[in-house]
């Protein structure tokens, strides 16, 4: 799961650009010194969720596609969170400023 | 002084000097095989341990050198193993001291442990085949020489030479008997090719506190070592070429020293490159300093049995950088590493067995 999060974060921060070919699961497993299946699981999950596609050479490539299902999910998720925030008594401005800060931080990519 | 003793002295000196220098050849965040955060590299304890270790190794070297001069061949070999064992004892106790300090004072507490990987190669890898060409040429020279020399060879070919270079055993002249050393040369070339291949594919350890610099160093080091090993292969082949010429009686000298000199040159080159580059290239200067991070390398002490043997079942790597030394070591927890090890051993032993059967 850490690999999954880190790759998504790297794509978000621009460290992994669209079209970048990722190392093979075996290669990444050797580089990280972790089990091959762990990497494979993360790669497959990333592909299922549309962050990666497999090219002709069976290598995973970064893609940025805004699919309908994801947008729908995001809306639902945000609705839930915002409802909770309002129920806690947060104002519209407070919520917006938190969101903006998170966005700014992600774009700078100060981790990984 | 016998040639054997000279070679023994050479081996002792190479090993001893390397160990005396080793504390400064390894990455600063890995003193005596203990992974520490960058903030602790100047701890007085580490400086003290370096000094202790050096005095100990120097003492061993002087005493053992004095002993081998007065001992026979078998005692010398025993002393060599004793030297290795005692060096390890010194390393082990110093390592334990630093490790217990690290654990006791919680050096790794509240540190963000990170693993960094490179996406895409940052440096061009060397072409191993290109670097094997000189070895192949030397083999071809041997084959061609044999072709011309064979008709004029005497009916018995010497196979063993005593210490003063006089042959003391012979075999009948047959094409296979005359070309056995060439088989050995091919095996050596294959071994060095395989070693280079595995080394170039091995992982590099990137320090999150200086990712660009450490990735440059480690990649450059891999290329340098692969090159040096190829060159070592050339020199070994030259030694075998000389041996061939002696056996075929076309070489003016049959002096042991002449035959062994290329190997000594090869070993010296690897020795010089090791000192120049440092372990994992830690002494190489990166062209750009790159980013500085606040994260630290993962504390991986627990995978190192006795600080020397790497055992990690989850790690698919075959070779990993040595913990305290220059080069690589096998991941004993990986079955593939054992296959690789056995393959190399077979490549050495099979030609020897063939020789044994024939002679």
Count of individual helical segments of chain B: 9
Round the Cα radius of gyration of chain B to an integer and report it: 23 Å
Q: Helical element count of chain A?
A: 5
Instruction: Point out poorly predicted stretches of chain A.
Output: none
What is the SS-derived class of chain B? mainly alpha
Number of DSSP strands of chain A? 2
Secondary-structure element series of chain B = HHHEHEEHHHHEEEEEH
* Overall body shape of chain B: globular
**Ranges of chain B with pLDDT <50 over ≥5 residues?**
none
Question: How would you state the average pLDDT of chain B, rounded?
Answer: 87
Kindly describe this structure.
The complex is a heterodimer of chains A (112) and B (359). Chain A contains five helices and two strands. Chain A is mainly alpha-helical. In chain A, helix 1 packs across helix 3 and helix 2 packs across helix 3. The radius of gyration of chain A is 17 Å and the shape is elongated. The two termini of chain A are 15 Å apart. Chain B is mainly alpha-helical and 359 residues long. Chain B contains nine helices and eight strands. In chain B, a hairpin with a 3-residue loop joins strand 5 and strand 6. The radius of gyration of chain B is 23 Å and the shape is globular. At the A-B interface, helix 2 of A face loops of B.
What labels describe this entry?
heterodimer; A: 112 residues; mainly alpha; two-stranded antiparallel ribbon; 5 helices; 2 strands; elongated; B: 359 residues; globular
Task: Give the SSE layout.
The complex is a heterodimer of chains A (112) and B (359).
Chain A: H1 2-12, H2 25-32, H3 36-48, E1 52-54, E2 60-62, H4 68-87, H5 92-108
Helix pairs in contact in A: 1-3, 2-3
Chain B: H1 3-25, H2 44-69, H3 73-104, E1 113-114, H4 128-149, E2 156-161, E3 167-172, H5 175-178, H6 180-201, H7 211-247, H8 256-277, E4 296-297, E5 304-305, E6 309-310, E7 319-321, E8 328-330, H9 335-358
Parallel strand pairs in B: 1-4
Antiparallel strand pairs in B: 2-3, 5-6, 7-8
